[in-house]
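To: structure desk
From: M.T.
Subject: fold request, one chain
Message: Could you run this one when you get a chance? Sequence is below, nothing fancy, just the single chain.
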Amino acid sequence: MNFFRVITVLQISNNELIKTRKYKNPVYLGDPINAIKIFNEMEVQEMVLLDIDATNQKKEPNFELLKLITSEAFYPLSYGGGISSIEHIINLQKIGVEKVILNT
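Reply: Done. Structure tokens follow.
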């Protein structure tokens, strides 16, 4: 019996769901909340959300959007983008993000 996990990776830019190739030429895909609902129906096991502009633009995570996302998701969420302090990590954990992704 083969068992595998489906982990989706979504990119967010300016609070919109996008698709890029090597983080260039973004294509708008839709509203992140609608995508969460679709992935609920597809029964994904985990999701990674990356705000690809937050760090470069020196923006904090959008906690309000993330709170909406975590309230809709029925699977573990990981988040990366704009995290620059332990307080950000604590706030992300409080709203339901299970893992944080740190890069630079």
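Reply (cont.): Helices lie at 32-41, 63-72, 86-95. Let me know if you need anything else for the meeting.
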